[in-house]
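[agent] plan:
  1. take the single chain provided in the ticket
  2. run structure prediction with default settings
  3. attach structure tokens to the ticket
  4. add a short note for the reviewer (M.T.)
[agent] executing step 1
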Amino acid sequence: MRPRKTTVIVHVIAWLIALAWIIPFLGVFMASIRPYSEIVSGWWNLEKFNLTLENFLKVWNHKNYPLSKGFINSFIIAVPSTIIPILVGTLAAYSFARFRFPTRDLLFLTIVILMSLPQQMVIIPVFLLTKKLGLWNTYGGLILLHSAFGLPWIVLFFRNFFVTLPVEIEEAAKIDGATDFQIYYKIVLPTSLPALASVAALQFTWVWNDFFFALIMLATPDRWVATQIIPALKGRYFIPWNLIAAASVLTMAVPVIVYALLQKYYVKGIVGGVIKG
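[agent] step 2 finished; step 3 output follows
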């Protein structure tokens, strides 16, 4: 069968959009694997092409701003900032999905509204509060901040996912004497593995790629995360684009690897999390 004209047009538009997205990433990658002298006139200039991994080694062990230290700090912040809101969010979402209590709908509506709250709107009171509590310029303060901002969408996501799960198994477990918490962590969580993987991948990626909160909350260079290290590589009179590109590629690689490892659960969990609202 010959393809329809509209199908061909849609595919062409899709490929053009994909190409527009890929070209900047291709430019960063090409700049990261070539000496500075070859990319100073444009990464697309291929008159000279000498493949090198020296840029990655230089930026990883940089004298003033080593990316290796930024990676350690990013993992210290991203891992607990992913685990904490998932643990708290699944508990809250299970309560919204299974129990009836006064002001339940009002509380859930409040959580949904909080999802639309811009970071820039609350950063000044957050900054003043963390300074007062002694949490500014600490890993703990940034972890709590990321966890708090991740909670609303995680609660919404899991509440919608839990609503789609059959309640017959839970009712049978209650008849056998299981408590609500036992049903939660022995039945509900194991059957929610696709959703857990999807949320973990998204939350980890957002925290890993964060620059705004880290810029405000972390002032000491030895506590900077990877996204803060990248712009710090720019000198006052000279910009080493090859090193900045190499640092960007290494930093981007981590979320890509996380997504690749969780990919088989990712789409399944996303679909399940948005079926019912």
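[agent] step 4 note for reviewer: Confidence is low (pLDDT under 50) at residues 272-277.
[agent] ticket updated
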